[in-house]
């Protein structure tokens, strides 16, 4: 009787209702009008090129490899490439230690990885995911180059967290293939995948990326193209408030402790440190232009960067 009483209380609780809502909400994210209801079939994605072997690129590559998708990791020089490959190996070892990956599957994942210093191995890829620093000219140059080399069916995705996709692809003739694939750090662990579409992104490209998201065990959420998209646009005032409090004299460690005690995995400043201050510096002008007087310009990140603290 006591168990039945407690069970009834739990089932009728607000927490239970919230969890049920989350469950069905996650299932509904893959139902996109004009994409999943028009009899399209997802194409097979066997080989993906990842441009950039930094924190995000190596995490994205790891997520693909453990799901048996071949990866070409492209970097600008041998040193960066070796570092990216080493990071991927470390990610895989971490998964083995946590018991979520066997040693045999780790060996298989490593065998699916190939390093590259140019685009010669892009001729037969099904998807490219660009994961370089948030600089518009660099991204535009990359997309103009890969458009000429990748096969016509290849999806051209960017991991940008902020930049307008129309700007990223404006120097190409492939706007229908350009799409946002915004992962969250660490990309091989965090479950969310923000899929960003423009008014010109084809339904086929969207469907294919949704399918890849499910294969690599992410929760794909399709959003529109605007500054910050959905997640970072929501996160923006949260981070702004944190920096405003610091400017008023509140200890940033106290802010992080309060947020962590509330139940968040980490506070805003620890999160920014994990992501790296280069990201914040790269996107600050984009947010300033988009939000005008609603944007609070904190000098904290610039001071950290000048002091050599990159996060």
Beta percentage is 5-15%
Which CATH-level-2 architecture of the largest domain? Answer: 3-Layer(aba) Sandwich
- Count of DSSP strands: 8
**Helix fraction by DSSP (H/I, runs of at least 4):** 40-55%
CATH class of the largest domain: Alpha Beta
Radius of gyration: 21 Å
The assigned structural class equals alpha/beta
Characterize the main sheet: 8 strands, mixed
Distance between the termini: 54 Å
Number of domains: 2
Uncertain spans: none
Shape estimate: globular
Which topology of the largest domain does CATH recognise? Rossmann fold
| Quaternary class | single chain
**Alpha plus pi helix count:** 13
Protein name: 3-hydroxyacyl-CoA dehydrogenase
Organism: Aegilops tauschii subsp. strangulata (Goatgrass)
GO cellular component, one term: peroxisome
Pathway: Lipid metabolism; fatty acid beta-oxidation
Walk me through what this model shows.
- Helix 3 (55-65) crosses helix 4, helix 4 (78-97) runs antiparallel to helix 5 (103-111) and helix 12 (277-291) packs antiparallel against helix 13 (300-306).
- The chain is globular and about 60 Å long.
- By secondary structure, it is an alpha/beta fold.
- Helix content is 50%, strand content 12%.
- The chain has two domains: 47-223, Rossmann fold (3-Layer(aba) Sandwich); 233-306, N-(1-d-carboxylethyl)-l-norvaline Dehydrogenase, domain 2.
- It has helices at residues 2-11, 14-28, 55-65, 78-97, 103-111, 136-149, 165-168, 203-215, 231-247, 252-262, 268-275, 277-291, 300-306, and strands spanning 47-51, 70-74, 113-116, 127-130, 155-158, 178-183, 192-196, 219-223.
- The chain contains 13 helices and eight strands.
- A hairpin with an 8-residue loop joins strand 6 (178-183) and strand 7 (192-196).
- The model has no long low-confidence stretch (mean pLDDT 94).
- Strands 3-2-1-4-5-6-7-8 form an eight-stranded mixed beta sheet.
């Amino acid at each position: 009787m006591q168990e039945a009483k407690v069970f009834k209380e739990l089932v009728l609780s607000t927490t239970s209702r919230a969890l049920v809502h989350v469950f069905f909400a996650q299932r509904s994210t893959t139902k996109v009008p004009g994409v999943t209801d028009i009899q399209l079939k997802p194409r097979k994605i066997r080989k993906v090129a990842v441009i950039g072997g930094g924190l995000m690129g190596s995490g994205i590559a790891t997520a693909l490899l453990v799901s048996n998708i071949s990866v070409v990791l492209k970097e600008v020089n041998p040193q960066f490439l070796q570092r990216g490959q080493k990071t991927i190996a470390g990610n895989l070892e971490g998964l083995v230690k946590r018991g979520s990956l066997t040693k045999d599957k780790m060996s298989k994942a490593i065998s699916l990885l190939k390093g590259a210093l140019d685009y010669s191995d892009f001729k037969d890829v099904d998807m490219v995911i660009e994961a370089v620093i948030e600089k518009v000219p660099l991204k535009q140059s990359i997309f103009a180059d890969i458009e000429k080399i990748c096969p016509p069916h290849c999806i051209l995705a960017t991991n940008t967290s902020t930049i307008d996709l129309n700007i990223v692809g404006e120097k190409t003739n492939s706007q229908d293939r350009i799409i946002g694939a915004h992962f969250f750090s660490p990309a091989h662990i965090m479950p969310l995948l923000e899929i960003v579409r423009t008014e010109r992104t084809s339904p086929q490209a969207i469907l294919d990326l949704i399918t890849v998201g499910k294969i690599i065990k992410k929760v794909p959420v399709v959003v529109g193209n605007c500054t910050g998209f959905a997640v970072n646009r929501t996160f923006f005032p949260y981070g702004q408030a944190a920096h405003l409090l610091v400017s008023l004299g509140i200890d940033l460690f106290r802010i992080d402790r309060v947020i962590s005690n509330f139940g968040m995995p980490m506070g805003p400043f620890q999160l920014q440190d994990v992501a790296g201050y280069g990201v914040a510096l790269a996107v600050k002008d984009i947010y300033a232009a988009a939000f005008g007087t609603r944007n609070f310009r904190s000098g904290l990140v610039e001071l950290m960067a000048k002091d050599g603290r990159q996060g």
